[in-house]
Design a protein that fits this description.
This protein is mainly alpha-helical. It has 19 helices and two strands. Helix 8 crosses helix 9. The longest helix is centred in the first third of the chain and has 22 residues.
Length: about 350
């Protein structure tokens, strides 16, 4: 827990500096932003195989793939463990140069923060606050557990400009590229269609409530859902597990906050897209109360929150002292993160261990 508290404190200090008009820069470089990027990235790179429930699996996959030398063997291995072909090739290429399983942890972590930095710099109104939210909303630690899927989702979100510009083929190319890391991101295709529907408060609330109704009718809808799930993933539909409702409850509070303070009439197309993605996250979170696997699908959309929330807090209606309200709001988010660390081992990332320990 100590390592994550240190990250939280350092990123918070950087965020305070980054939001100050007199930002400290060195040779034109935004020290606050890059400091908030580099330190968490280094912690991700240096972590051991026990930090993140799935980290040891990626480690083992890498060392196994290094030992395979024919396409037949590689394909069989990828099919057996449901590894994407692109991800398998990426592992094999690295294996030509480095044999240690720590290699994939290092390279995946670097890719994660490159994708994250590009996305934030491209879309965020307040980049330093987006980094603060990436830590305090638990996305960072969850990503350490499911890093290929998070890299894939960040790649797709980085291609949101093609949704906004209505460039279907370019967006599909981004989807195909991201699917080489994790096939589940194909679901983002739905956002291309949904974005054309303008969200209002009533529609947003209605859609949120619809998720609860689907949850109650899940057993009856299961035969229909299974028709759209590939055979290799059918086993996930048979595993029932109740997910953690604390995070869902906190996201509902954020959803309510957005509905209350946002002027939907003045909000642009970017806000509409981000809110659709957030609603998708909430819908799958509903379903995760029936099947745990849906919490992983929900997580694909979570990074959008670090773009949506700064947009909302920068454009609040009926608020005279935005600086004060923002200070209170982001302080509360920081407090909930510290409390969450004390009751929930986010992504099974605690205790933190360096790879040499």
């Amino acid at each position: 827990m100590t390592v994550y508290i240190v990250i939280f404190i350092l990123v918070s200090i950087m965020a305070i500096n980054g939001c100050n008009r007199r930002q400290y820069k060195l040779a034109g470089v935004d020290v606050a932003f890059w400091g908030a990027v580099i330190f968490p990235a280094a912690i991700a790179v240096l972590r051991g195989i026990t930090v993140g429930a799935d980290t040891k699996n990626y480690y083992a996959y890498y060392e196994d793939i290094v030992q395979l030398h024919t396409w037949k063997d590689l394909s069989y291995y990828a099919d057996k463990y449901l590894i994407e072909t692109g991800y398998m090739i990426y592992n094999k290429i690295l294996g030509f140069f480095f044999e240690s399983g720590q290699t994939i942890t290092i390279c995946n972590s670097i890719l994660l923060f490159i994708a994250l930095t590009v996305m934030i710099k491209k879309y965020s109104l307040k980049p330093i606050l987006s980094l603060f939210l990436y830590i305090t909303l638990g996305i960072y630690q969850t990503a350490l557990n499911m890093i290929p899927s998070n890299i894939a989702s960040l790649i797709v979100i980085g291609g949101f400009c093609f949704i906004l510009e209505r460039k279907l083929w370019k967006f599909l190319l981004i989807i195909v590229l991201a699917m080489q890391m994790h096939q589940s991101v194909f679901i983002f295709i739905a956002l291309y269609i949904l974005h054309s529907i303008k969200l209002t408060r009533f529609r947003a609330v209605l859609l949120f409530g619809a998720g609860g109704i689907v949850l109650m009718l899940y057993d009856r809808l299961l035969p229909v859902i299974s028709l759209f799930v590939p055979d290799v993933y059918q086993r996930y539909l048979m595993t029932s597990q109740i997910t953690n409702g604390v995070v869902f409850g906190f996201h509902i509070l954020i959803f309510i906050f957005i509905l209350v303070v946002t002027d939907f009439r003045k909000a642009g197309s970017s806000f509409n897209l981000y809110l659709w993605a957030f609603i998708m996250e909430l819908e799958f979170y509903w379903l995760s109360f029936r099947l745990e696997i849906f919490s992983r699908v929900s997580f694909l959309f979570s990074p959008v929150l670090i773009l949506l929330v700064p947009f909302v807090t920068d454009n609040m209606r009926f608020v005279k002292n935005k600086k004060l309200i923002n200070g209170i709001f982001y302080t509360l988010i920081g407090v909930q993160y510290v409390l969450r660390l004390s009751i929930n081992n986010i992504g099974s990332t605690m205790p933190y261990m360096f790879f040499w320990q």
